[in-house]
Write a structure and sequence with these properties.
Number of helices: 7
Largest sheet: 2 strands, antiparallel
Radius of gyration: 21 Å
Shape: globular
Oligomer: single chain
Order of helices and strands: EEHHEHEHHHH
Structural class: mainly alpha
Distance between the termini: 54 Å
Strand order of the largest sheet: 1-2
Helix content: 55-70%
């Protein structure tokens, strides 16, 4: 079917014909338009998180210096690249592996809203999504949907492990700088994993639940436990 996955090759052989479908090409494939949407979303989210942490309405630092701005900017960059970008790229990678068309498209309204709300210290973001078209089965669609939150979970575990391993060995500015980046990035990834696994359309969790209830339950319990660790060990 035109526009649905890899193109098929037809070989005419009397008295019947055979259709051979090549496997999905390896590697991520991007269009020039998609690059623009990714850059726009990443840039706007980094700016929004930076503004929110520096905003006096959100409990930001009483005195803003170049050093503080650079620390917050670096932390926001790491969190956005791991929490948002890797999440979307994994959706895309798995969908393309199944032969579907998959491209990210940003939401200018959602990004503008994120920048506006960042001023009060809270980022409400709907940066966009990976749009997918192709003959995916329910199982394939479920795995595509699970790929994003699962990536957040794995990344959050990595940052959490580094937080426990490295922070006790650091003091002073190094503790403040590295510890803050590890905490913020781990927390953002843990939160995004749980949020996206909620069984509410159009979130990823609704599609995973429709595919396999057991896998959805295991995933959200595991991700929820990690997020709870941040609240009861680091936040509360």
């Amino acid at each position: 079917m035109a526009g649905w996955g890899p193109r098929g090759y037809s070989v005419g052989m009397y008295p019947q014909s055979y259709v051979i479908t090549p496997p999905a090409r390896r590697g991520l494939r991007f269009s020039p338009e998609e690059y623009k949407h990714i850059a726009m979303a990443v840039g706007a989210l980094i700016a929004a998180f930076t503004i929110s942490f520096l905003s006096p309405f959100g409990g930001g630092a009483p005195t803003i210096t170049v050093r503080i701005i650079s620390q917050v900017l670096l932390g926001a960059t790491v969190a956005v690249l791991t929490g948002f970008l890797l999440h979307e790229l994994m959706h895309k990678a798995v969908a393309q592996r199944y032969g579907a068309w998959a491209e990210f498209r940003s939401s200018r309204t959602g990004l503008l809203f994120a920048l506006v709300t960042a001023v009060i210290g809270i980022v409400f973001a709907a940066p966009g999504a990976v749009y997918i078209a192709g003959p995916l089965s329910r199982g394939q669609n479920g795995r595509v949907s699970l790929a994003g939150p699962l990536t957040n979970f794995v990344v959050a575990l990595s940052f959490t492990g580094a937080l426990f391993a490295l922070v006790p060995r650091m003091t002073g500015d190094l503790l403040y700088f590295v510890g803050g980046i590890l905490f913020f990035s781990g927390y953002i990834n843990a939160f995004l994993g749980v949020f996206n696994m909620l069984p509410i359309p159009p979130l990823d969790g609704s599609k995973v639940l429709a595919w396999n209830v057991a896998i959805w339950a295991i995933a959200i319990v595991g991700m929820g436990a990690l997020l709870a660790l941040y609240f009861f060990r680091f936040i509360v």
